[in-house]
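=== Structure Prediction Worksheet ===
Name of assembly: unnamed complex
Input type: mixed (protein and possibly other molecules)
Chain count: two
Listed entries:
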Amino acid sequence: MTKEDIKKVVLDIITDIAPDEDLSAVKPEVRLRDQLSLDSMDFLDIVMELRKKHGIEVPEADYVQLASLDSCADYLLPKFQAKAGK
Amino acid sequence: MSPLPRIVITGVGLTAPNGNSLAEFRANLLAGKARIAEIEVRHMGRQPVGVCDFDATRWQKRKEIRNGTRVGSISIWCAREALADSGLAWDSLDHSRVGVYLGITEHGNVETENEIHNISQFGNDTKYWTHHHNPRTVANNPAGEVTMNMGITGPHYTIGAACAAGNAGLIQAAQMLQLSEVDVAFAGGVSESIHTFGIFAGFKNQGALASHPDPTRASRPFDRDRNGIVISEGGAIYVLERLDDALARGARILAEIAGWCINSDATDAVLPNPDRQAECMRLALRRAGMKAADVHLVSTHATATALGDVQECKAVREVFAGCPGTFVNNTKSFIGHCMGAAGALELAGNLPSFTDGWVHPTINVGELDPECEVPGLVVNRPVKAPRIEAILNNSFGMLGINSALIVKKYGVA
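=== Predicted Assembly ===
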């Protein structure tokens, strides 16, 4: 699992939860909320889908780490690696 | 005390299993076209069901559809279509003076069952329970989704009234308009009940769930071999205004709300009480200042249960005895029982009688149950009536709630 893989995982989730959005030009370094119409419920959806589909837990204190695709990749990479290493 | 303002219907939006507009619905009712499908219901196997096929994406973003409820989508469809039908100048209207009043039989069963099923896939761990659960299941959900979609900032709520809910929504709206709480009301009834297995199982174990090899024949009120209810989804929402406001903007007036009554049996949770039903119809007539003979069409509630149909027929026979100009029909034979939407949809399908003069029949009657013989009952084929100037719409529900709503052709004394 690479950071690029994780960005794709997150984008796939966003595709499901925000189906009206054009995700073709999402900038990985820019906050998702600043370029997409996402609200707090949508971020909870991202957390839920990470839990359901990938067994990844994101504690509430760490929600801020999901701000951009880059920060998602940085934050989630060790979690995915730990999961794969089990 | 000055008389209360007169209330009129100036727009209709609907979705029924056999039509997504009043014109389509009406054409199928006059053509005798039922539309009931057989679908898989969770835990219940294949069942005859009335399914709507409106295109929710016409009025909603896909995210709204995903995050909201099925009945929210039904409500938005109906309200938006009603608005378009009404010709109201929406953008220049004060949206804080618009109210949304929607009747529901139940709400939240669908979403709760879905989540119970969802977490059952994860060892019943509630951390997998969706955070969308509460906004989806609050009882005002269908009306609230309409306000969010349309930017309505006036009051909104649902009226829980079992299967009398469609009439109850209209009655509530008429009252709020008379009190000048709002200037425009979106009102009617809605239902998503086909998506909850609990309703099916409940009726089945009560011996009141319909079955038939041909699903389009499964709902057969008044037929000797009827065997219960076909559960359906749907909605009908009307635009209601005070008459003076409607006239001032040159609105097309579809009907005037003439009178109504809601009462209670106070006898049994599920068994109807024909005495209270008759009392309900009589009180609605009195409030409308009408005699029974002034009503030219009675739209029955009959759901095709063994006892319910007989009891309503008894009440209708009694109230409309000696009224040779009164016809009687039923809509559930075409579309099943749309639960919270039933009363509102059944009224809508009959409204065009004021202009086309036809009375649509009740269909699927192979052999009329002698106990369901009612003078004027229109069976299997439509009838051209000498005149239709007033309709009494019956809608009854569990816990002994009865409603009768009378609408009349505008301009008739």
